[in-house]
Amino acid sequence: MTNASLWKLSFVVPYEAAETFSDALEAAIWPEALAVSMTEAEPGTSPLVQTASEWNEVEAHGDWRIEALYAEAPEEETLRELISRIERETGAAADDFLIAPMPEEDWVTRSLEGLDPVRAGRFFVHGSHDAAKRPAGAIPLLVDAGQAFGTGHHETTAGCLEYISELVKPGVPLNALDIGTGTGVLAIAIAKLARVNVLASDIDPMAVKVTRANARANGVAPFVSAVTAKGFGHQALRARAPYGLIVANILARPLVSLAPSFRANLRPGGTLILSGLLRTQEAMVRSAMALQGLKLVSRKPKGDWVTLRMQG
Fold first, then answer.
1. What local confidence, expressed as pLDDT, does residue 58 receive?
2. In this structure, which of 42, 59, 191, 261 has its CB flanked by the most CB atoms within 10 Å?
3. What residues does each domain of the chain span?
């Protein structure tokens, strides 16, 4: 049985060309990828080299696998044309080209199994088996392995949680929106901290289902509403605008395309937390926001990633 809402493209290319292929898939307007990843095709067979971040090292050279996730079945001809163009530009061949529906139990679930708990600001993100490890005074966020992105283990989610921990005040009224909610962890964090109603949205119906289940598991189901939507293309999002806080942990290109909508739906003086972007993409995202009058307040770099705090 498959989850018809999610499809995956995968292929293998030489390391030297992997980033060019990955960037092209992420930048493509159609089909629009939900996420793009690069991993070594045969881990442990290549030497370690330093990345742009002083904290990270990666396996260099050899073959790397590129994977892209889509909300619906992408057109094979369109993707092959895109890949062929990059092959001509780089002189590198893409092998093992495959487009397939995602199984119900897939790599997202398997990769999260056994992950250690994470402390991010006042929050303690953990699975059911680590509930007893919660530090005194920490706010627990229960997120078990599931078919959605965002558990607090990635630098982008952790950066967002730290900002939420710093900015959201218990008991202070707040109209908040979490776009690209994934597991719902950010919406749940806001609801737990402020005890206010939070609206969450995601392009993937499975993520919306997971968010609702996680809200129940964390005891904040009455405070978290989740809807399936692309950007601000749902009446529920527009009806509750303007927002005092918008959190968007997605990809750089979608952030850029949503800049006018962020400005239109954020109240004057409101806070916009953006993540899911690499440091190399920061200037592009900041420029798009500046054109809409959204000002940078601060930034949290973590590894190769960065989380931005903007103000309307």
1. 38
2. 191
3. 2-104, 159-311
Q: What pLDDT shows up at residue 132?
A: 72
Q: Does domain 159-311 have CATH number 3.40.50.150?
A: yes
Pairing of strands 118-120, 123-126: antiparallel
Return the C-alpha torsion angle 44, 47, 50, 53, nearest 10.
-10
Which CATH architecture best describes the domain 2-104?
2-Layer Sandwich (3.30)
Is the peptide bond between 74 and the residue preceding it cis, with omega within 30 degrees of 0? no
Residue 52, pLDDT above cutoff 90: no
Assess contact for 185 and 165: CB atoms under 8 A.
no
- Write down the pLDDT at residue 228: 92
Mean local confidence (pLDDT), 64-90:
92
